[in-house]
Design a protein that fits this description.
Blueprint: H1 2-17, H2 19-48, H3 52-55, H4 59-62, H5 65-69, H6 85-89, H7 94-112, H8 119-139, H9 161-173, H10 178-181
Helix pairs in contact: 1-2
Amino acid sequence: MAKERKGMLARYWTMLTKPAGVAMGLILMGGFIAGIIFWGGFNTGLEMTNKEEFCIGCHEMRDNVYQELKETIHYTNRSGVRATCPDCHVPKEWTYKIIRKIAASREVWGKITGKIDTREKFQAHRGEMAAREWKRMKENDSRECRNCHNYISMDFSEQSRRGFEQHEEALGSGGKTCIDCHKGIAHQLPDMEGVEGWDG
């Protein structure tokens, strides 16, 4: 057994010390190192786009929805815990995060092409952007809301009677999710009149 191992190691060593073996080893090593560098760079870039500073880097977001967020309890509250843009709009799981990043490129394209580059244009298209986001949140059962809010952790006795009744109904319904009742919780509700595909 030891002799077989020695023979196998000797064959591999001979193969690796020949010019073709050395070249193959260098190619494999180079590919491995390049893969690590690419993956690290990709993830670093991805995480840089997951910061509030990136989100409000363009005036369309900074001057519109960010200013509205600053007036809500999600921005300033007694606990000092603050939700940032990615907390609500970017999933934590990698696959969903990539899908969301691809979908968000639509807003970037809107800025590049001038579709939403002024407040007036932004407001004109705001309803369709909101409808897309609300639809996404409805379809994923308000996953990002649930990163911080969870029915199981809620103290219903501390809620208003209406809040208690609504949460109890939602908990039992199986079909309701946070965004069904909490549209406009962090941003002003847009005018939805005439928004294609919007049914309320």
